[in-house]
Amino acid sequence: MSVVNTQQSQRRINELTRNTIALILAGGRGSRLKQMTDWRAKPAVPFGGKFRIIDFPLSNCINSDIRKVGILTQYKADSLIRHIQQGWGFLRGEFGEYVDLMPAQQRHDEHSWYQGTADAVFQNIDILRARNPEFVLVLAGDHIYKMDYSAMIADHVANKADLTIGCIEVPLEDAKAFGVMDVDDNRRVRAFVEKPENPPIMPGRENTALASMGIYVFNAGFLWEQLIKDADTKSSSRDFGRDIIPSVIDKYRLNAYPFLDLQSGQQSYWRDVGTIDAYWAANMELIGVKPDLNLYDNTWPIWTYQAQTPPAKFVFDDDDRRGQAIDSMVSGGCVISGATVRHSLLFSQVRVNSYSEVNDSVILPEVNIARHCRITKAIIEKACQVPEGTVIGEDRAEDEKRFHVSDGGVVLVTAEMLGQRRHYVR
């Protein structure tokens, strides 16, 4: 392609992204994360040492040159709202750029909150129409991945689609947990089924299905029309996957957009961290020498709010009392004081005191681990004060008496489980 054609193509993509509003659905609890979401929405859960889950779709928007973003909140959104206000206020309203919080307001029904993903958008339809976008990009706020949405929007336009659905390839046995598409050789969607017992197989493949990522590009006028129709349908569950998408397949053009690495053609990194085991594993992956998710990529930075903390510090160098971290990620403000940390991820302002050992664990911000503790394969929630001599992760039966232990043997510890009243009503 010539330089002139490349420039024209880039200008066209820029025009498309300028005319796009991204809506991040961030109202869900994520109950499979157990006590981690007792006091925060799933998109607000910390991830990767210094981020929150919602930082990933938000950063994808900014890096894709989509600068008009609405975040639809509902369940226990206080920490999420504060995070957005503190870390995402750098866009310039003078240029039509914004990250807007759009809490559930009962704008169309004073007796109900958001009933489903489609209803969350419908209840804000008057606000969105007034902003007059050409395209609406609908995103889930609770997955970890890096994706150029501008390429998906360009593909949507090139194929003259009414709706384009982002998808990943998954083994058939895993597809039962997703919305699954049946597509033809041109990627046109012929059927869409939520959590099917017998998922359709990809064309030309064996034991592989195309699963929805919960990412949709709509022509705006088409979206308004379908949302209004759905709102008038009494039997609808007000959900994109269960109701909107199946109802339009026969009459309109729906395309699948595979989320593939442009260089290798292989499936790109995408993680649903919706369970304790999946959350722990995704954080542990980051510690690897060459993790699939590269947080050190300066061409696609992950933006976030971060407190102003001093560098991590490691103190004492005696044979029995050496501050050290091996095969680990340690964030700013941490102090490893005569303790050993192995194959673990420490968020900011964690302190591990003398003679303690932390192995294969995720330690969230502001945790203090007292002396002579042994912690293995655990998630220690924010601001826990772990008492001296505590042993976690060595005896499942003992752990289950006090903490939550996952099917995969990950021990989740919260302040309340330790008898500390961090959250209380009375």
Description:
The protein is of the alpha/beta class. It contains 11 helices and 31 strands. It folds into 2 domains: 3-285, Spore Coat Polysaccharide Biosynthesis Protein SpsA, Chain A (Alpha-Beta Complex); 313-413, UDP N-Acetylglucosamine Acyltransferase, domain 1 (3 Solenoid). α1 (3-18) packs across α6 (149-158).
Mean pLDDT level: 93
What fraction, in percent, of the residue positions are helical?
A: 10-25%
> What's the tally of helices?
11
Please, how many domains?
2
Low-confidence stretches are: none
CATH architecture of the largest domain: Alpha-Beta Complex
- The CATH class name of the largest domain reads Alpha Beta
Question: Any idea what the shape is?
Answer: globular
Biggest sheet overview: 9 strands, mixed
Q: What is the SS-derived class?
A: alpha/beta
Site (Could play a key role in the communication between the regulatory and the substrate sites): 74, 113
Binding site for alpha-D-glucose 1-phosphate: 114, 179, 194-195, 212
Pathway: Glycan biosynthesis; glycogen biosynthesis
GO molecular function, one term: ATP binding
